[in-house]
Specification:
- The chain is of the alpha/beta class.
- The chain contains 9 helices and 13 strands.
- It has helices at residues 12-19, 39-42, 47-56, 64-73, 110-120, 162-176, 202-212, 282-294, 313-329, and strands at residues 21-25, 78-84, 124-130, 185-189, 217-218, 260-265, 297-303, 347-352, 355-360, 368-370, 377-382, 404-406, 419-425.
- The strands form 3 sheets. The chain has a 7-stranded parallel β-sheet. The chain has a 4-stranded antiparallel β-sheet with strand order 8-9-13-11. A two-stranded antiparallel sheet has the order 10-12.
- Bound molecules: alpha-D-glucopyranose (GLC).
- Alpha-D-glucopyranose binds at residues 26, 37-38, 189-190, 242, 263, 270.
Amino acid sequence: MDNYNLENRNGKVKAFTDARFGMFIHWGLYSIPARGEWVRSNERITIDDYEKFFYEFNPVNYNPRKWAKLAKEAGMKYAVMTTKHHDGFCLFDSKYTDYKATNTLAKRDLIKEYVEAFRQEGLAVGFYYSLLDWHHEDFPAYKDRHHPMRNNEDFKNKKIDFNRYIKYFHNQVEELLTNYGKIDIIWFDFSYDDMTGEKWEASKLIKRVKELQPHIIINNRLGGNLKKNIPEDYAGDFTTPEQIVPPEALVNEKGDLIPWEACVTLNDHWGYCSQDKNYKSSKEIIRALVECVSKNGNLILNVGPNAKGEIPQESIDILKKVGHWIKQNGQSIYGCTNSINAKPEWGRYTQNDCYLYAHVLQRGVGPINLRGLAENIKRARLLCDGSEISIETPWNAEDYKEDAFLNFKSASLPDENDTVILLELK
Ligand code: GLC
């Protein structure tokens, strides 16, 4: 699917949900201390003490074309990259701050190169933008729940002009959506306590966002509630369960499905963490993707490149294995949704119109039962090679008149990650 474009399908959100699988990229100055992107907050690091990383930042191996090729090889259809994280450092060339990549040894706009590289590989392009800003002097510090200086008495009587911060961040969003051509996704992060909705002047912001990029897909973290009958205009287009796959498809108060995207790390950090080797297996990642789609969701998987601009080898290895599986089975992912058929005991279903995909995760003993599908199946094929699977009711299953059966010859599954059977429905 070259030049996959989120716009030219059946409406903007459908295009996003058809894509199903994306790459999240968390990258910034925090890749140097290498203890995750919350390092300033977790360790109460002052701006002055953090400043050394700004002067040192020099990602000599930054080559987003490599990242884009990897994302494509993994079967991902879109990417979202941090343009500014909570530490306030901008990877893009903003005229509203000096705290930006162009003033480091990198000396250039790293976001521009990201956009060009991912576009060139035919992926849709998204921007992550942090609503929090621990560098801006008008962002609440003392007693704010997350700010690195929350307990620092020196900040107790410091006057701030929050409106100035709002203006600053609205201006930056405007720059991001003006200077880089068409942007497919904007991913705001995040709202908390009373720092939500109109506190961010969210309605005004969203109006401007839509003027600048009418087709953009917007996440839900400016606040508001997508589950309401009539959501706020800033409630966004999709919800963002973090480090969790919801137990079932998400619906609003009316019972209509709402789009969602689970964001998940490969180890336990978003930003680069040199000590964190707690990587998930490629098998678990494949199954997580299938689980998301079987519940009508997307999966955006994170990579945290290091200070040199390299994606950790462990992440590369996992993504390549996922890509190998997707190459054979992508038809059961892209454009697919949850099925009206209940979750089977041996795995999961995904569906795209008259194609039902049986994701067999557990071989079990004997024929594989397709509950209630006796009259519905035209043919069954192993998705990876198109070979026929017999669906004649075997002698020992004649009591189960409502069900169909896959007569699986081998005692083990051909693909231990997830063996997918295409079922063409009548
Ligand atoms: C959180 C974290 C953050 C990360 C994000 C990704 O809100 O603050 O560091 O960027 O979630 O979902």
